[in-house]
Write a structure and sequence with these properties.
By secondary structure, the protein is α/β, with parallel strands linked by helices. It is built from nine helices and twelve strands. The chain has a domain of 67 residues. The longest helix is centred in the C-terminal third of the chain and has 16 residues. The structure holds adenosine-5'-diphosphate and magnesium ion (MG).
Length: 258
């Protein structure tokens, strides 16, 4: 048995993905260690969301592979041959990856608390009591202890996004993926969401964050990765990639967002 806890959380090797004749990912290699915070930077259309969706198995890869916690999410290696994993196994593995989107995707007809307890009860078959206990704790952690009975429509965008983070954490993920979590927010609400993400990073969560918030990336990322046209152009410490990039494309991108 390999010790999964000791290995990398993400191992992506030569990942290719096309939609029709559009080649979106052209050979991505990336390793993310436990507790690392990777900020994924790049212009619109460079393939950032597609890569996150491949990690989370919302898309399948055409070539190469992605291991999460040492496993292929959609298949198993049995006696040297790949077999498609059973849907219930895929669901269980995916449930260990939290994802937060630009649009918060909360259920508008459910209270904040109901939004947070839904997946643990449905997918993990937790009792309502156990799910509520954790949800209350998590809502406190994101600063929304007093909003559990509110409906999403009555909350600000920043509050809704913090609920979405609590909801993802309720599944006790080993990896959190964020796809431009603050891009849909009014500027004055960005900080409260970044603060929650900063706390999460400090707690040791492994995170991969697509963001245009360069201040956050410089402060929180252990590694900054710059993608362009489906390839990783450069990666390294944020002070290097954002502060003194090697590549002209990175400089051109930073010139637009900074
Ligand atoms: P980014 O997140 O960096 O802006 P995306 O991964 O969303 O980039 O998209 C990369 C390219 O792939 C874009 O040209 C986009 O239009 C295309 N694309 C993404 N998803 C699909 C899809 N499901 N079908 C067809 N084209 C897609
Ligand atoms: Mg995107």
């Amino acid at each position: 048995m390999t010790d999964i806890a000791a290995g990398p959380v993400i191992q992506a090797h030569d990942v290719h993905k096309s939609f029709g004749n559009l080649d979106v990912l052209k050979g991505i290699d990336l390793t993310v260690a436990r507790g690392e915070v990777v900020c994924l930077l790049g212009a619109s259309g460079s393939g950032k969301s597609t890569f996150l969706r491949c990690i989370n198995h919302l898309e399948t890869v055409d070539r190469g592979f992605i291991l999460v916690d040492g496993r292929l999410i959609g298949s198993d290696l049995v006696r040297g041959r790949l077999h498609e994993a059973r849907p219930s196994v895929v669901t269980e593995r995916r449930s260990r990856i939290g994802m937060v989107f630009q649009q918060f995707n909360l259920f508008g007809h459910m209270t904040v608390l109901e939004n947070v307890i839904l997946a643990p009860m449905r997918v993990k078959k937790e009792t309502r009591e156990v799910a509520i206990e954790r949800a209350v704790r998590l809502l406190g952690r994101v600063g929304l202890g007093n909003k559990q009975d509110s409906y999403p429509g009555h909350l600000s965008g920043g509050q809704q996004q913090r609920v979405a983070i609590a909801r993802a954490l309720a599944m006790e993920p080993t990896l959190m993926l964020f796809d431009e979590p603050t891009s849909a927010l009014d500027p004055e609400l960005v900080g409260e969401v970044l603060d929650v993400m900063r706390d999460l990073a400090a707690s040791g969560m492994t995170m991969m964050v697509v963001t245009h918030e360069m201040g956050f990336a410089r402060q929180v990322a252990s590694t900054a990765v710059f993608m362009s046209e489906g390839r990783i152009v450069e990666q390294g410490p944020p002070e290097k990639v954002i502060g003194a990039p090697d590549h002209e494309r990175t400089r051109a991108f930073l010139g637009k967002v900074l």
